[in-house]
Design goal:
single chain; about 475 residues
Length: about 475
């Protein structure tokens, strides 16, 4: 390529507080429009904001988990601009002295070495409202829903260290995992709880001067982030190659056409006329508060992955999958506490458990097969009571009925057959009925062995002990 993309991301993380950042209104999603408002979030004259302490605590957790420094004294500012869903005519945010600064995340894209992505800042701010278009009750007009106004956000601003769409997605997924793991955000991208703006530019390969950037606003899925960035890179390169000039602007991504379109010229900081909010005193965070927050942090995903690999002997892939969420990692550890074969437990969770959760749309927290019951099932396999194949049948019944694996095995007569005489009798019948395949095997066509195994298992309805079957078949087929 003649051009090098340069990408920086601004991620908006909606916080899981019960009330808004500067008032006591509820943050519940999906309520009737304008039913969760008060004089403060409506911006009525004389109403004064009061900072929600939980928002500060969540911001500190996010900063510590992304290797940021916590600012001992930060201030809130008014970001002035006009938009129909911004009732005050300004947004309370942070400009100078944000609460978290100069952090980083390490990302890994398949086939590449680990890369460190800088985080410039994390700051607290309130969300704006929402425009509602095309409602039939308004004769296809537009309305403003201010339920979301004053909802607490963290804005996480990266350095322009990303160079590909895959790196951007990897960074976003890691940040998403951290904020949901901490319990400070539900991570629901469809509802806008986790969304990002992508700043994209291109420069000639070998240059150290960044090109003019375009900002793509409010992208709310990993897939769309990748598509938007890739389209914008190509658009800018084509424009330059045709002799045009990239202009600094804000663009919107259309997921239907996978293209971006111009929205407005890009504002600079001075366009917002930032100044300290006179209604909010500076926020002072003591060392004791920071250290208490540090002590209360849970074991983070990367730390847990490392422990799963070193203490439990899991491969890197398994450890990564099993720490996809904190709830999944907790489920896995509860299973291992009841059945100490971590690899076997992990295989079942990554296989049957995940499949059943996806098929039923169930969360791991609501999984009908408890860790104790899954451990019971694995013990039945270990002691030879049932085969691995039969175990999948038992598992499906456990999922549907909630019965114990032992009960299901007894009710359905699924106990594994290990009796040598019974298995020999089945093998003899199958060999007699398939003399041609016996000769093929004895003539050197060893692949036929799998045919005989399948026939024996079918005849025994899956109950024959596979190791006994293999041993007896090998002896008899070799004559």
């Amino acid at each position: 390529m003649k051009y090098q993309p340069v990408i920086g991301l601004e991620v908006h993380v909606q916080l899981l507080t019960d009330t808004k950042i500067f008032c006591g209104c509820s943050t519940t999603f999906g309520s009737e429009p304008n039913s969760q408002t008060c004089p403060v979030c409506l911006g009525l004259p004389g109403a004064l904001p009061v900072l929600n302490k939980k928002v500060v605590e969540f911001a500190i957790r996010a900063g510590l988990s992304t290797n940021c420094s916590i600012t001992p004294r930060s201030i809130f500012a008014r970001k002035n601009y006009f938009y129909p869903d911004l009732p005050k005519g300004y947004q309370i945010s942070q400009f100078e002295d944000p609460i978290c600064q100069l952090g980083w995340l390490d990302i890994t894209v398949e086939g590449q070495e680990t890369k460190r992505i800088g985080i410039t800042r994390i700051h607290m701010e309130e969300d704006a409202g929402k425009l509602v278009h095309g409602d039939s009750d308004m004769n296809d007009g537009s309305g403003v829903d201010l339920n979301r106004a004053c909802t607490p956000l963290l804005e996480v601003v990266s350095e322009p260290d990303l160079r590909t769409s895959d790196e951007a997605v990897s960074y976003l997924k890691q940040l998403h995992q951290i904020v949901t793991w901490l319990g400070i955000c539900d991570g629901n991208m469809e509802e806008g709880s986790f969304r990002c703006d992508a700043n994209v530019s291109v420069m000639p390969v070998g240059s150290s001067t960044f090109g003019t950037r375009a900002e793509i606003k409010n992208i709310n899925s990993f897939k769309f982030v990748k598509q938007a960035i890739e389209y914008e890179i190509e658009r800018q390169i084509d424009l330059i190659e045709d002799g045009g000039t990239v202009v600094q602007e804000t663009r919107l991504f259309d997921p239907n056409s996978c293209t971006t379109r111009s929205m407005r010229s890009k504002e600079e900081a001075h366009d917002y006329r930032y100044f300290p909010d006179p209604d909010l005193v500076p926020l002072v965070i003591s060392d004791q508060w920071i250290e208490r927050a540090r002590r209360e942090l849970p074991e983070l995903p990367e730390q847990r992955q490392h422990r799963f690999m070193t203490d439990l002997g899991l491969p890197a892939y398994d450890a990564e999958v099993l720490t996809a969420s904190r709830a999944l990692a907790d489920y896995f550890e509860a299973c291992v506490a009841a059945h100490d074969n971590a690899k076997a437990v992990g295989n079942w969770i990554m296989g049957e458990i995940t499949r059943s959760l996806n098929d039923s749309g169930t969360s791991i927290e609501a999984c009908p097969v408890t860790p104790a019951r899954l451990a019971e099932l694995l013990k039945l396999i270990d002691n030879g009571t049932i085969s691995g194949k039969i175990a999948k049948t038992v598992f499906d019944e456990m999922w549907k009925s909630g019965k114990t694996p032992q009960t299901i095995v007894e009710e359905q007569g699924l106990v594994q057959v290990s009796d040598i005489g019974a298995i020999e009798s089945i093998i003899d019948e199958i060999m007699a009925a398939n003399a041609g395949q016996v000769e093929e095997y004895r003539g050197g066509k060893e692949k036929v062995f799998g045919f005989f195994v399948g026939q024996v298992m079918k005849a025994s309805k899956g109950k024959a002990n596979p190791s006994v079957v293999n041993e007896l078949l090998l002896t008899k087929l070799q004559g």
